[in-house]
Design goal:
Blueprint (H helix, E strand, L loop, with lengths): L1 H24 L8 H35 L3 H17 L2 H5 L8 H14 L5 H13 L3 H11 L4 H24 L6 H27 L23
Helix pairs in contact: 1-8, 1-9, 2-6, 2-7, 2-8, 3-7, 3-9, 5-6, 7-8
Amino acid sequence: MLYSAFILGLISSLHCVGMCGPIAMMLPVDRQNEAKKVIQIITYHLGRLTAYSTIGLIFGLLGRGFFLAGMQQKMSIFIGIAMIVVVLIPEKIFARYNFSKPVYSIISKIKSTLGSQFKKKSYKSLFTIGLLNGFLPCGMVYVALFGAIAMQSAGSGVLYMLLYGLGTIPLMTIVVYIHSVLKLPFRNKIQKAIPYVAVVIGVLFILRGLGLGIPYISPANMSLFVQSSPNCH
């Protein structure tokens, strides 16, 4: 299931360009020294990957708890259904509710700190910008977190979110170099493809939970659990 994280990140990076693209365009990088600029961009991405990995650790631990409780398969099915439902519900319905209201003050502080970092040009500030950027609310990150919580361990949760972050890097890097590389019509076409990709990944999680005995896609129920004696056929 880990490869789905990278694919989701790669496809959803079009969404990232619209939401976080302005942050990437405003990065305080050295426009004259190309080598230094590359290192600065990498530092920014390392900050984002650190944020994603941290969140993945938290949700991976939750997933580990479900696994130990024998709920892993049911959770995988539930999360797959949740992924599909989230992308099928019109965005305007979600707009009626402020899901971030309970943590609004925290988000405000993150945005305030993020804004102050653009005035600096140190590697520390670039890493901080990426770190705070990764913690900002994002619908596609929430979808990826469904995948992280469906993993069987904290390490797998971290790896899932790390791969998701790596998938967003190519396009987010291009944006820094060429602001107008992605025209609106093209972005709109890719945006329309994002829900289909999320649905496919959701279906994969459902198949995984069903334990149909399909190699790599839907392992048999017995192979999902650690046993005291081998399960031989």
